[in-house]
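Lab manual, section 2.4: Encoding a predicted structure.

Procedure: take the sequence of the chain (79 residues), apply the prediction step described in section 2.3, and record the output as structure tokens. A sample record is shown.
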Amino acid sequence: MRYHCPSCKINWEDSLEPVMQIAQPLCIFCSSRHTQSELIKWQMEHIKDVNVKDYGLIVAHMYRYFEGEIRILKDKTDE
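Recorded output:
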């Protein structure tokens, strides 16, 4: 059965079908805790499995992450 992870936006397949699917299940990556940088790396490694309509969300998330990291580095260099 094909699924669409609501968190990382990746399409994935599983041979087991849930008995009672109330909401979309998370993929194996999103089922556990990860940092933002690990999520971005995961998404870039599996970009072929992402719907084209979700590319904008992924790029926006990546941009906000890099912008925050640059701000942190700028603050450290100003100290």
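Check your result against the sample. The chain has a mean pLDDT of 84.
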